[in-house]
Amino acid sequence: MRLRQVFGSSVQTRPNASPSVASNSVISSISSDYESVHVSWKDGGSSKFHNVWLRDHCRCGECYNATTHQKEFNILDVPLSIKPIDVAVNTENGLSITWPDHHKTHYDAEWLKKHSHVESKLPAVTRRLGKEQNSFLWDKNTIESKFPRPFEFAKVVSDQEELNALFRSIINYGLAVVGGTPTSVSAIEKTAARLGGFVKETHYGKIWEFSNEVMEHADTAYTSGYLRGHTDGTYFSHPVGIQMLHCVGHEGTGGLNLLVDGFFVAEKLRQTDRESFDFLTSRNIRFEYNSEGLLLKAHGPIIELDPFDGTFSQIRFNNYDMAALDYLKYEDVARFYKALREFTAITADPNNQLWFKLTPGTLLIMGNWRVLHGRSGFTGKRMMQGCYVSMDDFFGKYRAMTFDS
Ligand SMILES: [Fe+2]
Ligand SMILES: [Zn+2]
């Protein structure tokens, strides 16, 4: 292999050397060995790139679609032992490689630097509720004293900064309220379009509009009884991410909304009963729901941790939808019920519960992977609207909006 450094028309060839380059450059020198290319950076440090990684990351139009970020290159087209026949720093201070089949790859130096291997980058790849800088876990007192300001519907649908703040509220606390929301379903649809672009359709439909007087679905939520704290869609392999709820009318009493920070509950359990915490983070629990011609079944841990950094990634907790526990070994049954009781008791502690009455015009938005919701029993006719947005679409929109590549 030859190592070249190209400045305009002048070409040097120095095998396995570390040529110095222009003073305003990002790359200060390069060298290579039998399986990789080493790049020393002008501002200190160096990175090592494996040859097969470099070939796989060719960003030419043939190998990569820069618009969709989709790769065309097929790993079966080259041997794992592929070696460049030429490596050079090009005029733009990027890296240029010629491959044995004379395919040429040009890497932008900034791009290479950004994508050099740093293991601490792993957790940042996946955005999660509660992982932003200003996030905090909350119980009743904490959230009541730091309750995020209500957002304004008219601004949410028109103003980028208001939308940005709304996203951050949902990410930081798992909830937001939007005041001045019209009671027509199109208002919910507009908000969903701003938050993810698409409404997540389920067996409940796209946008639901229902009252307890018309039992459209067999679900417990369509009754007028007390609904204990839970997350929705535990019987989906990918539970619904964001839920919106709007009480557009209630002639009667009761019907208060309940919210509990599931991450707070999980953290409390970690501190008070480590054995139960370990059980709920490591064992898959099955959930199911049978309605509308679908027998939905899925499983997952009640407390899911991010595999990269161990932070909370998802709470899947719905006692109503828990399937028969015939998959647990007899020896695990008592451990499971102890853990379930402990977790449920923390969710049921009034010190950890936020109760409030939703009124027409106030749209509640919840991060369903974090925050449990419920409601008290009520009398009279209660009209609700709502919809879901998938977590992928929610974070997809947020990344695009904040230019997070
Ligand atoms: Fe629910
Ligand atoms: Zn290519």
TrEMBL record:
<dbReference type="Pfam" id="PF02668">
    <property type="entry name" value="TauD"/>
</dbReference>
<dbReference type="InterPro" id="IPR012776">
    <property type="entry name" value="Trimethyllysine_dOase"/>
</dbReference>
<feature type="region of interest" description="Disordered">
    <location>
        <begin position="1"/>
        <end position="23"/>
    </location>
</feature>
<dbReference type="GO" id="GO:0005739">
    <property type="term" value="C:mitochondrion"/>
</dbReference>
<comment type="pathway">
    <text>Amine and polyamine biosynthesis; carnitine biosynthesis.</text>
</comment>
<dbReference type="Pfam" id="PF06155">
    <property type="entry name" value="GBBH-like_N"/>
</dbReference>
<keyword id="KW-0124">Carnitine biosynthesis</keyword>
<feature type="domain" description="TauD/TfdA-like">
    <location>
        <begin position="150"/>
        <end position="388"/>
    </location>
</feature>
<comment type="similarity">
    <text>Belongs to the gamma-BBH/TMLD family.</text>
</comment>
<comment type="function">
    <text>Converts trimethyllysine (TML) into hydroxytrimethyllysine (HTML).</text>
</comment>
<feature type="domain" description="Gamma-butyrobetaine hydroxylase-like N-terminal">
    <location>
        <begin position="31"/>
        <end position="112"/>
    </location>
</feature>
<dbReference type="InterPro" id="IPR050411">
    <property type="entry name" value="AlphaKG_dependent_hydroxylases"/>
</dbReference>
<dbReference type="InterPro" id="IPR010376">
    <property type="entry name" value="GBBH-like_N"/>
</dbReference>
<dbReference type="InterPro" id="IPR003819">
    <property type="entry name" value="TauD/TfdA-like"/>
</dbReference>
<keyword id="KW-0408">Iron</keyword>
<keyword id="KW-0560">Oxidoreductase</keyword>
<dbReference type="InterPro" id="IPR038492">
    <property type="entry name" value="GBBH-like_N_sf"/>
</dbReference>
<protein>
    <recommendedName>
        <fullName>Trimethyllysine dioxygenase, mitochondrial</fullName>
        <ecNumber>1.14.11.8</ecNumber>
    </recommendedName>
</protein>
<dbReference type="GO" id="GO:0050353">
    <property type="term" value="F:trimethyllysine dioxygenase activity"/>
</dbReference>
<dbReference type="InterPro" id="IPR042098">
    <property type="entry name" value="TauD-like_sf"/>
</dbReference>
<dbReference type="GO" id="GO:0005506">
    <property type="term" value="F:iron ion binding"/>
</dbReference>
<keyword id="KW-0223">Dioxygenase</keyword>
<dbReference type="GO" id="GO:0045329">
    <property type="term" value="P:carnitine biosynthetic process"/>
</dbReference>
<keyword id="KW-0479">Metal-binding</keyword>
